[in-house]
Amino acid sequence: MDHPLAPETVAVTAGRPPLEPDAPLNAPLTPASTYVAGGSMEYGRYGNPTWEAFEEVLGRLEAGRALTFASGLAAVSAIVDLIAPGEKIVVPRHAYLGVLTIMAEREQRGLLNVARVDVEDTEQVVAACDDAAIVWLESPTNPMLEVADIETIAAAGHEAGARVVVDNTFATPLVQRPLELGADIVLHSATKYLAGHSDAVLGAVVSRDDDVHTALDERRRTLGSVPGVLESWLAARGVRTLHLRLERSQANAAELAHRLEAHDATEKVRYPGFGSMIAIEVRGGAAAADLLTRSTSLWVHATSLGGVESTWERRRRWASEPETVPENLIRMSVGVENVDDLWRDLEAALGGLSG
C-alpha cells in the first residue's frame, strides 16, 4: 500500500506468514530447540519463528526493532547490564517494584550509582542527568500514575551522553511512542496490556539503534532469558485486539475516575487522563483499603494488571513498596466489563466502608 497503516491495522496484520495458498493465517507454534545448521537461528536459544512474529508486530507498533524476553524483569536485567560497574543511572522514585528492587540490589553491591527522582519534576530529572549512563523513566509511573515530559528529559539525557529508557507498559504504543519522543530503548512487560489476557509472562524491548539491538540480543543469549514459545504465541494473538481492548478499558477508566472523584469514601483519585489505570486513596487508611479490595464480586484482588478483567490491590501490602506510596492507595486496573456493572460493584463496596 502507498500510505502508512494505522496502528490498529498494524496490530492485526503484522507478523503473519506470507499470504500463500494453504498457508496458516497466523504464525504457528514452533516448539524447536534445534535447527538444521547454516541458517540464522542455529539453536533454540538464538531465535524462534514464533518469537519473531510477536517481535515484528511490537516493533512496527513502536517504530523500532523488538526483542522478546522471558519476562519484563529479564528485559530490565538485560538493559541494566549495558551499564559499566559503578556508572550512574537515574531512576524514578516510584516505579515497578521489580525494577526498584533490581536497582537497589545492584546499588548495594556497588555495581550502580543510583539517583532517584520524581519524574513529574522535569527540572529535577534534567539536573540528575549529568554523568548518567542511563536515564530510566516510567510514564505513567507504577503505582502513582505520574507523567514524565519524555521529550524534554530525553533531550537532556542525550546532551549528557546518557541513553534514555522508557517503560511504556501502562501507556502502550497506541497512546505514546517513546522512540519518536527521543527515547533510545522502550521496555514492556508484555504480560500486561500487550498479551492482555492474564495468561502469559513475557517481556520485550524495542530500539532503533543496531548496536543497542545487538547488545541486548547478546545479553538474551548469554543469560538464557529467552521467551517461551507458547507465551510468545499468546502475546501475538493478544496484541491483535489491543486497540479494541484499550478503547473499551480506557473509556471505562475515564468514567470510573469521574465517579470516584465525587464519592465521599475517596480522599484522592489519580488518573492521568489516558490509559486504563487508576489509583485511589480511600478514607480510613490501610485497614479500609484492605477491606475494600476484599469486598467486591467483579473486581478481583490480584497483583497483576492489564488484562480484560478488572483487578486491584493495596500496593503497600508489599513491604518493599516505597514508603512514599500512601498506605491507603489502591491501584486499579480497569478491564473491559460493562462500566455500570463495575461501578455498582465499587459503589456497594465503598458504601460498606462507612456503613
Automatic annotation (TrEMBL):
<dbReference type="GO" id="GO:0005737">
    <property type="term" value="C:cytoplasm"/>
</dbReference>
<dbReference type="GO" id="GO:0003962">
    <property type="term" value="F:cystathionine gamma-synthase activity"/>
</dbReference>
<keyword id="KW-0032">Aminotransferase</keyword>
<dbReference type="InterPro" id="IPR015421">
    <property type="entry name" value="PyrdxlP-dep_Trfase_major"/>
</dbReference>
<dbReference type="InterPro" id="IPR054542">
    <property type="entry name" value="Cys_met_metab_PP"/>
</dbReference>
<dbReference type="InterPro" id="IPR015422">
    <property type="entry name" value="PyrdxlP-dep_Trfase_small"/>
</dbReference>
<dbReference type="GO" id="GO:0019343">
    <property type="term" value="P:cysteine biosynthetic process via cystathionine"/>
</dbReference>
<feature type="modified residue" description="N6-(pyridoxal phosphate)lysine">
    <location>
        <position position="192"/>
    </location>
</feature>
<keyword id="KW-0808">Transferase</keyword>
<dbReference type="InterPro" id="IPR015424">
    <property type="entry name" value="PyrdxlP-dep_Trfase"/>
</dbReference>
<dbReference type="Pfam" id="PF01053">
    <property type="entry name" value="Cys_Met_Meta_PP"/>
</dbReference>
<protein>
    <recommendedName>
        <fullName>homocysteine desulfhydrase</fullName>
        <ecNumber>4.4.1.2</ecNumber>
    </recommendedName>
</protein>
<dbReference type="GO" id="GO:0008483">
    <property type="term" value="F:transaminase activity"/>
</dbReference>
<dbReference type="InterPro" id="IPR000277">
    <property type="entry name" value="Cys/Met-Metab_PyrdxlP-dep_enz"/>
</dbReference>
<comment type="similarity">
    <text>Belongs to the trans-sulfuration enzymes family.</text>
</comment>
<keyword id="KW-0663">Pyridoxal phosphate</keyword>
<dbReference type="GO" id="GO:0004123">
    <property type="term" value="F:cystathionine gamma-lyase activity"/>
</dbReference>
<dbReference type="GO" id="GO:0030170">
    <property type="term" value="F:pyridoxal phosphate binding"/>
</dbReference>
<dbReference type="GO" id="GO:0018826">
    <property type="term" value="F:methionine gamma-lyase activity"/>
</dbReference>
<dbReference type="GO" id="GO:0047982">
    <property type="term" value="F:homocysteine desulfhydrase activity"/>
</dbReference>
<dbReference type="GO" id="GO:0019346">
    <property type="term" value="P:transsulfuration"/>
</dbReference>
